[in-house]
C-alpha cells in the first residue's frame, strides 16, 4: 500500500506551552504563564487568534504539568455560561464562549523540559507529513501586521521552512537565535545560510534575531530525532534548522519583520505590552488614555516640585 504524498497546504499550528514560567514567580507558581492576563484575555488567546486569523484551523498545544487551566480556558464553562444566561449578560456570555469556538485544539504533554526542539518533536504524530506553523506564546504579533500570513505565502513560493527575523540591537542579539542570510531579490525575504543559538557576544553572524514564529517543513522531524542536546543541555530547534539550511535539500528562508511585536516573556516588556494594548483598546482605551495622561502630568509635577504638589 502506497503512502499518501506530503501535503503542501498549511492548516496546522503547534504552540509550545510547557515552560515553567520561572521569570514570573511567584505569579506563576499556581498559574501557567500563558494564562497571565494581557488587558482582558490571557496571552495564549492572542496567539490562538493569530493562528486562526492566518487560516490555521487545527492547533496542537504542547503542555506540561500544572497546565490544566489552558485546557479549561478553551473549553466550555457550562456553569458560568448558564449563570450569564440567567443574568442576561450577553456581552460576557459571548466572550467566554468565544474561546471555546476558536479552533479545533488538541493537547500533548512534553514529558520533560528538554527544549523547544523536543517540544516540536512531540508534535510529530499529530502533524504527520504536513508543513506546520510553530508559534511561541511569549511573542505576540499585532493583528494589523499579518506576519504568519506572509510566511505562509513565502512557504508556498519557495517550499522548505520559513523563520521570522527581526533586526535587533547587537547588544541584545546574544539572547536570541541569530541567522546569517543572503538576499533573494525579493523584498523583505532572505535565504538563511546559517543559524546560531544565542551566540557569544561579538560572534553573532548578523543582527537578525529569530523571533517566535516558524513555518516548518516536516523534514525537520527527522533532523530533530538525531539532533543532540545543544546550548543549555536542550534540543534546540535552531540547531535542526541550521542542518536543513546547510543541506540545501529543504531550504530555509527568512521573512524580515518590521511590524509590532510584544514580548510577554520579560516582566518589564509584559507591563509595556499591557499599557500599549490598553491604550489602543476600543472599549477601555479612551478612559485609560485620559487617566494615563493625568497620571503622567501628576508624576512630572511631583518630579519638578510643582507648586502645591506633595511628593
From TrEMBL:
Signal peptide: none annotated. Its EC number is 2.7.7.9. It catalyses: alpha-D-glucose 1-phosphate + UTP + H(+) = UDP-alpha-D-glucose + diphosphate. The keyword Metal-binding does not apply. SUPFAM superfamilies: Nucleotide-diphospho-sugar transferases (SSF53448). Coiled coil: none annotated. Residues 12-272 form the Nucleotidyl transferase domain. The keyword Nucleotidyltransferase applies. GO terms for molecular function: UTP:glucose-1-phosphate uridylyltransferase activity. It holds the Pfam family NTP_transferase. Keywords: Nucleotidyltransferase, Transferase. It comes from the Bacteria. GO terms for biological process: UDP-alpha-D-glucose metabolic process. Belongs to the UDPGP type 2 family. This is UTP--glucose-1-phosphate uridylyltransferase. It comes from Streptomyces roseirectus.
